[in-house]
From TrEMBL:
This is Transcriptional attenuator, LytR family. Residues 83-233 form the Cell envelope-related transcriptional attenuator domain. InterPro entries: LytR/CpsA/Psr_CW_biosynth (IPR050922), LytR_CpsA_psr (IPR004474). Pfam families: LytR_cpsA_psr.
């Protein structure tokens, strides 16, 4: 999981920071992009660019904090806001320029506050980002300071902007869903995929013949696809496509951080060393129940991750290992 998680964070920060140093017009667009992706609100429901966001601006670079990162798979043609297909808990120590990412299987069977036990990705359509955060906080006993979400349409647009990505398809992938119009057709072998097929590659879980692939199989494909996308993101490509990239970010990335908080973090992590990023994931056991697949996470695994979280906040040293 390490490569794609690193690029998930570094890729967005690199684009935004590059924009802030590349000319007056691009700097203005950079500032507009920060405004567009921030949905922080004040008590009157208006966009808030003050210091009253989830994190005190003056202490943003001093105290470690946790955020929820997730990708949204929406079906706009059905007027469906979608579900959270990819979830990560991000532990951030801006002072030490250190990040720990903990992947959460989307099928994790959890108690959703105010509702019954269900897959964790059901929290988003039931109550949006707020319920997603409440679910994770209750389940893992952690306080979250905010979230960052990415619509997978943005992934399609970025892949197409970069001219496609080369991946190794290890099995035949055929799946049709007449309800939402999904039609996946991929054959085995190394090949260059456009945005639509790249998204099919990372989302595929079940074929028309009923063969099922786990969340972990899909996470491996996400790793391969995002690593391939990152290889296309050279400084030359970024500079020549910066305007289009910022438009894609504006349309597809949302966060509860204020623009000032975002800018502070971007400046802090502009020289981020990937060696200071640690990753792990919650490990469970898949099972089939009442016509659906779930991921049962043992209590011992939850306690392991809670220990990682506690150690991160209690011992914020670059040399301390975070993941196992």
């Amino acid at each position: 999981m390490k490569k794609w998680q690193k690029y998930f964070v570094i890729f967005i920060c690199f684009i935004l920071f590059t924009a802030s140093t590349y000319g007056i017009n691009l700097y203005r667009q950079y500032k507009a992009t920060l405004q567009a992706i921030s949905i922080a609100e004040n008590s009157d429901g208006d966009k808030d660019d003050s210091n009253d966001g989830n994190i005190e601006l003056e202490s943003l670079g001093k105290e470690p904090f946790a955020m929820l990162l997730y990708g949204i798979s929406a079906r706009k043609q059905l007027n469906d806001g979608g579900r959270s297909d990819t979830m990560m808990l991000a532990l951030i120590d801006a002072q030490q320029k250190k990040v720990s990412l903990i992947s959460i299987p989307r099928d994790s069977y959890v108690q959703i506050p105010g509702y019954r036990m269900n897959k964790i990705n059901a929290a988003y359509p039931l109550g949006g980002s707020k319920l997603m955060m409440e679910t994770v906080e209750s389940w893992l006993d952690i306080e979250l300071q905010g979230f960052v979400s990415v619509d997978f349409e943005g992934f399609i647009e970025l892949v197409d902007l970069m001219g496609g990505i080369e991946v190794e398809v290890t099995r035949k992938m055929e799946y049709d869903d007449p309800i939402d119009g999904t039609s996946i057709r991929l054959t085995p072998g190394k090949q260059v995929l456009d945005g639509k097929n790249a998204l099919d590659f990372v989302r595929f879980r079940q074929s028309n013949d009923g063969r099922h692939a786990s969340d972990y199989n899909r996470m491996e494909r996400q790793q391969q696809a995002l690593a391939a996308l990152a290889e296309k993101v050279t400084p030359f490509r970024v500079v020549t496509r910066l305007t289009d990239m910022m438009t894609i970010l504006s349309d597809n990335v949302k966060t509860s951080l204020t623009p000032k908080e975002l800018e502070t973090l971007i400046r802090v992590f502009a020289s981020f060393n990937p060696a200071n990023l640690e990753t792990t994931s919650l490990q469970g056991e898949g099972y089939y129940h009442n016509g659906a697949w779930y991921e049962k996470i043992p209590q011992g695994e939850i306690e392991r991750v809670q220990t990682i979280i506690k150690d991160f906040f209690d011992h914020p040293s670059v040399s301390d290992p975070v993941s196992q």
